[in-house]
């Protein structure tokens, strides 16, 4: 019996649009990758060192202003250092610290979350108690205390950022593991004789990848902003190493005369943050992850 | 005949954790059960009767607060490391919910291979053959090995579920509501398969269900559980033809469609 | 065999109903060319296995395939006519006002999952009372009617009327749903697997309650189930559904006693229990 589908009228129309609709996650990922590449290829793109001071060319405006030149496309700062070069190297610094800090906190948080969720009982209650205690300590206080005690080395920043972020991951992962544990296949594996380590590695971890991807993507911007904030306050990355936060901070006195000193790194940070947020949101819809820990 | 599962005066009560004081719930209040090797037993009860808890005690997943448990010659709650592995191999479980019973990220073949790997049942090179054999035993083609759990139907998944339990060549098989989630026509297929495999592998089975009609097909001996206590035990056919306890009577009287047989 | 056509008033008639859903990779035709009639005071059972389209049809009667009930795009074609005493309403493509009037006064519905159908933060008595809010009766008589219907379903007394849904057992919640549906005295009650989640002893109680409520109010019932035993207990007529189509329709004793369709026979033969004949052992290579 030939039975024409009630959707046939517009289904091809729909498919056409779904076919060419550019996927938000992909577009944003490509743009983000571009920014990361700019940072990585900084020595190739610009031949001016970010720390080279040129007192004859102080506070030069970007190329599209009167008095700007192609030699300094984004202008220079108050010491005559190339803004383009500083922004590109700044991406390297900020991105690197944020990524390493995030990885450190993810490893810490995920391990603790899995142990708490899988072992349960007293171990769970103890670990969650420690997590709760960490949550109550103000982030900035912890950061400043760490920096005062250990100095302003970059690895200190990475470790401190890691120590601040892990509790959120531990909580969410524990929640996910508890939910997974209720599913039959974890019990089936246990009944088959699998050890706890095997269950954790073969069954729990792979099923955490989707939610973890979303969580980490969504929290990357706040880690990046944390580094920027610390550098802005002057306790983060120390000069002359270029960092996006530090550049915004040192440019704030010249906002009226040379907005580009703060403006250019701000644009970079906002772009990175926005792209990450859009990717994270898109991934959450795509992977259908519910984030309730 | 020697008993392979023996529970005497088993009590289980659930309570809250260290910081959360919840009222104590008695799931089992002194249950004694004896199952001989090769027999087909059924355990019937309504929700909250403790029937799943009883199965989990036998599997060593729930520790009783009182009483003794002996399964396949082991006490599941005091096992050495090597004994634990051996116990896990000899006592297996078939689940109710066939969707959640499989890791969604593993192919069916990988899921079936897990037990073979853990217990070194065969060389890793022989594993694919072994998995094909297992699939064949439950009436599924070899190609299923490459499919993911969500790509097969409920009845097929339940067959794989049974194959996974059989993969480690157990002596005792606990089946906790294995057909409750299936359509009637598929229920019948899985029940038939169950019976075949029970004979073929010389299994001792405990079939847990709320459905008296299903239990009738899958067991020769029946235990009726109510509020954590065994209220009636005996041959399944005897109990169906002449229940002694009033609760069993009520269960049988409540079955829908009494008299449908006379019409058919 | 008495022909219901000549004796009873026609209440609902469906003609060539098709229900399709748009899914990720195409279109699912859940109901195909379904035609049936429900007469006043009778119980028609719609029986089939999962995916047979029995629920999809029931929901299309009350237009429950539209937002806010679902986000999936759905197309219903055909005619579903509801016969009131004075006029006939076409339910397919009816406007919101008509559908509301039908849901409020004419057709009630109960579901398998009573817990999620009840509001968890409102006491039971109030929920039954609110079900009456559109019925034009004196407010003073409303509470009387509420306590009457709660008495009838076995939830009499303040102990139940002041209880929150989570304080009730599964069977009591289903009783509450029946009270909420029946208090408006609908002409047709659609019961979508109302006893599937219940224990067998509770199921027997709920079935006899439904029959009692139906008899006292001369309500018709469209009873959706997968259980042939339940069909035999509650229904006079049965429609067997398979893959979106009705494959057999007739009196229960007729259909079960002398099934004409192969699928109906399979369903009957495969009922687990003492009478099922085991098929020959599957030959294995």
Describe the fold and architecture.
The complex is a heterotrimer of chains A (293), B (264) and C (285). Chain A has 293 residues and is an all-alpha fold. Helices cover 72% and strands 0% of the residues of chain A. In chain A, helix 4 (83-119) runs parallel beside helix 11. The N and C termini of chain A lie far apart (52 Å). Residues 1-11 of chain A have low confidence and may be disordered. In chain B, helix 5 packs parallel to helix 6. Chain B has a domain at 3-99 and 171-253: P-loop containing nucleotide triphosphate hydrolases (Rossmann fold). Chain B is globular and about 55 Å long. Chain B has helices at residues 51-58, 81-90, 108-118, 127-137, 154-166, 184-200, 212-218, 236-241, 246-254, 260-263; strands at residues 3-14, 25-36, 40-44, 66-71, 91-94, 172-176, 204-209, 221-226, 229-235. In chain B, the strands form 2 sheets. Chain B has a 6-stranded mixed sheet, sandwiched between helices. In chain B, strands 2-1-4 form a 3-stranded antiparallel sheet, with helices on one face. Chain C has 285 residues and is an alpha/beta fold. Chain C has a single domain, classed as 3-Layer(aba) Sandwich (Rossmann fold). Chain C has 12 helices and 10 strands. In chain C, strands 6-7-8-3-9-10 form a 6-stranded mixed sheet, sandwiched between helices. In chain C, a hairpin with a 4-residue loop joins strand 4 (74-83) and strand 5 (88-90). In chain C, helix 5 packs parallel to helix 8 (170-182), helix 6 (139-152) packs across helix 8 and helix 8 runs parallel beside helix 9.
């Amino acid at each position: 019996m030939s039975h024409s589908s009630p959707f046939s009228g517009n289904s091809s129309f729909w498919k056409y649009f779904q076919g060419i609709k550019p996927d938000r996650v992909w577009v944003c990922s490509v743009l983000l990758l571009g920014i990361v590449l700019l940072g990585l290829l900084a020595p190739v793109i610009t031949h001016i060192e970010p720390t080279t001071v040129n007192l004859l060319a102080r506070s030069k405006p970007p190329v599209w202003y009167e008095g700007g030149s192609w030699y300094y496309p984004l202008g220079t700062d108050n010491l005559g250092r190339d803004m383009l070069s500083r922004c590109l190297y700044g991406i390297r610094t900020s991105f690197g610290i944020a990524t390493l800090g995030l990885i450190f906190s993810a490893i810490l948080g995920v391990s603790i979350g899995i142990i708490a969720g899988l072992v349960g009982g007293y171990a769970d209650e103890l670990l969650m108690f420690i997590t709760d205690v960490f949550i109550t300590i103000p982030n900035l206080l912890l950061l400043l205390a760490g920096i005062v005690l250990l100095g302003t080395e970059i690895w200190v920043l990475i470790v401190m950022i890691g120590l601040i972020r892990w509790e959120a991951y531990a909580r969410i992962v524990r929640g996910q593991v508890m939910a997974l544990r209720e599913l039959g296949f974890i019990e089936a594996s246990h009944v088959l004789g699998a050890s706890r380590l095997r269950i954790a590695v073969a069954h729990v971890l792979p099923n955490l990848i989707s939610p973890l991807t979303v969580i980490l993507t969504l929290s990357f911007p706040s880690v990046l902003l944390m580094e920027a904030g610390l550098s802005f306050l002057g306790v983060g990355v120390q000069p002359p190493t270029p960092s996006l936060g530090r550049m915004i901070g040192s440019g704030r006195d010249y906002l009226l005369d040379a907005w580009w000193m703060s403006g250019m790194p701000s644009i970079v940070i906002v772009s990175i943050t926005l792209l990450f947020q859009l990717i994270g949101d898109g991934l959450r819809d795509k992977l259908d992850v519910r984030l309730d820990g | 005949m020697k008993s392979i599962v023996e529970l005497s005066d088993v009590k289980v009560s659930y309570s809250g954790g260290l910081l959360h004081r919840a009222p104590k719930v008695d799931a089992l209040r002194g249950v004694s059960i004896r199952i001989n090797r090769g027999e087909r037993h059924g355990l019937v009860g309504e929700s909250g009767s403790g029937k799943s808890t009883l199965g989990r005690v036998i599997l060593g997943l729930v520790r009783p607060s009182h009483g003794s448990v002996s399964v396949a010659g082991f006490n599941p709650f005091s096992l050495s490391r090597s004994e634990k592995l051996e116990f896990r191999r000899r006592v297996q479980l078939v689940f109710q919910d066939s969707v959640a019973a499989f890791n969604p990220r593993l192919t069916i073949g990988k899921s079936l291979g897990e037990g073979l790997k853990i217990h070194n049942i065969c060389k890793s090179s022989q594993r694919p053959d072994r998995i094909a054999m297992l699939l064949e035993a439950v009436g599924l083609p070899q190609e299923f090995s490459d499919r993911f759990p969500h790509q097969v139907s409920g009845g097929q998944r339940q067959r794989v579920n049974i194959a996974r339990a059989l993969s480690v060549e157990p002596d005792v098989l606990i089946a906790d509501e294995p057909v409750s989630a299936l359509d009637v026509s598929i229920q019948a297929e899985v029940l038939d398969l169950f019976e075949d495999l029970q004979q073929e592998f010389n299994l001792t089975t405990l079939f847990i269900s709320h459905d008296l009609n299903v239990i009738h097909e899958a067991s020769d001996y029946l235990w009726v559980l109510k509020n954590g206590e065994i209220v009636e035990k005996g041959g399944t056919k005897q109990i169906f033809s002449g229940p002694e306890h009033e609760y069993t009577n009520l269960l049988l009287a409540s079955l829908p469609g009494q008299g449908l047989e006379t019409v058919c | 065999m008495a022909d219901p056509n000549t004796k009873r008033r026609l209440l609902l008639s469906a003609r060539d109903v098709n229900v399709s859903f748009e899914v990720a990779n195409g279109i699912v035709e859940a109901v195909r060319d379904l035609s049936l009639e429900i007469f006043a005071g009778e119980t028609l059972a719609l029986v089939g296995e999962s995916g047979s389209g029995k629920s999809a049809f029931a929901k299309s009667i009350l237009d429950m395939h539209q937002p806010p009930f679902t986000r999936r795009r759905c197309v219903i074609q055909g005619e579903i006519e509801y016969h009131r005493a004075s006029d006939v309403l076409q339910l397919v493509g009816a406007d919101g006002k008509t559908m509301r009037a039908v849901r409020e006064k004419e057709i009630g519905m109960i579901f398998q999952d009573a817990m999620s159908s009840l509001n968890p933060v409102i006491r039971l008595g109030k929920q039954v009372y609110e079900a009456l809010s559109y019925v034009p009766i004196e407010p003073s008589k409303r509470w009387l009617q509420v306590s009457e219907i709660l008495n009838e379903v076995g939830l009499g007394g303040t102990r139940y009327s002041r209880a929150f849904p989570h304080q009730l057992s599964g069977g009591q919640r289903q009783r509450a749903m029946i009270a909420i549906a029946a208090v408006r005295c609908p002409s047709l009650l659609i019961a979508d697997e109302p006893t599937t989640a219940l224990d067998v002893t509770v199921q027997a109680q709920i079935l006899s309650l439904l029959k009692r409520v139906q008899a006292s109010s001369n309500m018709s019932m469209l009873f959706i189930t997968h259980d042939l035993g339940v069909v035999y207990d509650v229904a006079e007529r049965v429609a067997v559904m398979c893959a979106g189509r009705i494959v057999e329709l007739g009196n229960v004793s007729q259909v079960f006693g002398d099934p004409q369709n192969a699928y109906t026979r399979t369903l009957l033969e495969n009922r687990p229990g003492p009478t099922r004949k085991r098929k020959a052992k599957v030959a294995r290579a």
